[in-house]
Amino acid sequence: MDLQGLLDNTLAGLGYELVELERSTKGALLRVFIDKPGGITVDDCALVSNHLSRLFAVENVGYDRLEVSSPGLDRPLRTERDFARFAGQKARVKLRVALEGQRNFVGVLREAGAGRVNLEVDGRVLSLDLGNVDKARLMPTL
Fold it and tell me: Which residue, 35, 32, 29, is CA-closest to 16?
């Protein structure tokens, strides 16, 4: 069973986005990180948790504990849609293969499309291949 696909479809139907899914090595713990425009509340987490508990019982998904939460202020950026959605915000990006001798960048997300994201770093814009992005997270502003 494709748990990721099941969650993507189910959460989209409820008006939420699956940001990340973590499963412990023994499968006992499932962590589901969700988001929606305007942010996530405790009530959102409770609603999704209750819905997923029933869904998992019907679909015979084995787990001992389910945790549902928001991705936090430093949410991960995974898809081209994520990068486009958060254009104008500061992010930390780690590349798989170095660009100009560097793998780690901090800058402002500009535009994303056609498999690339533009990141403004120290006044210059770098065009990064999304396939080369190992990890990317928003950087919260205080």
Answer: 35
- In which residue are the tokens 């849609």 written? 81
Which regions of the chain carry the CATH code 3.30.300?
3-69
Helix (H) or strand (E) holding 107: strand 102-113
**Long-range Cβ contact pairs of 106-110 (< 8 A, separation 24 or more):** 106/139, 109/77, 109/83
pTM listed for this prediction: 0.81
DSSP for 49-88?
Answer: HHHHHHHHHHHT---SEEEEE---TT-B--SHHHHHHTTT
Q: What is the DSSP letter of 25?
A: T
pLDDT digits (tens, 9 = 90+) for 19-52: 999 998 776 899 999 999 888 999 999 999 999 9
Contact of 87 with 36, CB cutoff 8 Å: no
CATH 3.30.300 fits 3-69, yes or no: yes
